[in-house]
Amino acid sequence: QVQLAESGGGLVQAGGSLRLSCTASGFDLDEKAVGWFRQAPGKEHEPVALIDSSGQKIGYEDSVKGRFIVSRDNDKNTVYLQMNNLKSEDTAVYYCAAGTWPLPNDYWGQGTQVTVSS
């Protein structure tokens, strides 16, 4: 069964850090670009970070540049999103998706909640 699963969300104080993981099962994630997306209450679904299959091409949404780092471990079939210096406006459900660069959207995870308290 093809599946993506996010983990690592939770409640953190402003200025803190979290690391999200996106693990694939049923297919080889190293053949896919992966994107992290988020949706806050009352807001549009937006891309946060993208990484291509090789890890050579990376992109970030402006508001997270310098704070978030996307990386991948293809041996573990996993992509990570390290989130530092978190702000209340980062509160959202975070999703990962795998597919074709530059808009991976073939497979989606179920989402993980990130809540940043101020």
Termini Cα gap:
40 Å
The H/E string reads EEEEEEEEEEE
Compute the average pLDDT: 96
Strand content: over 45%
Q: Could you list the spans in which at least 5 consecutive residues all have pLDDT below 50?
A: none
Percentage of residues assigned to helices: under 10%
Number of helices: 0
> How does the overall form come out from the CA principal axes?
globular
Please tell me how large the radius of gyration is.
13 Å
Give the biggest beta sheet: 7 strands, mixed
Q: What structural category characterises the helix and strand content?
A: mainly beta
Number of distinct beta strands: 11
Question: How does this model look, in words?
Answer:
The structure is a single chain. This protein has 118 residues and is mainly beta. 0% of the residues lie in helices and 56% in strands. The chain is built from no helices and eleven strands. The chain has strands at 3-7, 10-13, 18-25, 33-39, 46-51, 58-60, 68-73, 78-83, 92-100, 103-108, 112-117. Strands 2, 4, 5, 6, 9, 10 and 11 form a seven-stranded mixed beta sheet that branches. It has a four-stranded antiparallel beta sheet with strand order 1-3-8-7, with no helix packed on it. It is globular. The mean pLDDT is 96.
